[in-house]
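Budget justification aside, the reviewers requested a transparent look at the raw inputs and outputs of the sequence design task funded under Objective 1. We therefore reproduce one unedited record. The lines immediately below are the structure tokens for a 173-residue chain.
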């Protein structure tokens, strides 16, 4: 995914770079099951914990009387694998990657030849504009924040403008 993202930042693309992007995205989708535990919601995690507990209880209640030592050892090895497989199955069914960002990036390869590079759709500039307001909120006392944020941001902006004016006057002289 990192390689895919870095390639989306290129200033220009060729058919080769677009095919690389498609390849990287395909590899991500082939291996994304590794992240299922991280992406599962609270309900799925609760369901897996409950299923794990039930299966563990069933396995411990299973009578091992009459089994040989090798059969008992084999059973002890199979039980954790069975529990792990059950948890993975539940997570695979409950966790998903069906959200807008994952859907949108699947269309990058067809959009680049039609509309050019993706940098023109970047939100970095507008995200950068939030920085001043975030800092102003951090400086507020969190009560009646709007007026404090505006005052703080305006003060900072005024100081910056005054510094620029002084720099211009110093260059003119």
């Amino acid at each position: 995914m990192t390689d895919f993202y870095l390639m989306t930042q290129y200033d220009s693309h060729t058919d080769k770079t677009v095919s690389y992007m498609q390849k990287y995205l395909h590899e991500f989708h082939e291996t994304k099951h590794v992240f299922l535990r991280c992406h599962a919601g609270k309900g799925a995690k609760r369901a897996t914990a409950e299923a794990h507990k039930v299966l563990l209880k069933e396995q411990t209640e299973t009578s091992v009387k009459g089994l040989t030592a090798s059969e008992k050892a084999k059973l002890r090895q199979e039980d954790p694998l069975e529990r792990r497989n059950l948890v993975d199955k539940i997570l695979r069914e409950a966790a998903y990657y069906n959200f807008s960002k994952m859907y949108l990036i699947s269309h990058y390869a067809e959009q680049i030849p039609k509309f050019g590079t993706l940098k023109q759709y970047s939100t970095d500039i507008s995200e950068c504009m939030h920085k001043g307001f975030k800092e102003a909120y951090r400086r507020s006392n969190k009560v009646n924040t709007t007026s404090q944020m505006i005052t703080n941001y305006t003060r900072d902006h005024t100081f910056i403008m005054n510094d620029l004016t002084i720099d211009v006057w110093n260059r003119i002289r």
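DSSP finds nine helices and no strands in the chain. The mean pLDDT is 80. Computational costs for records of this kind are itemized in the attached budget.
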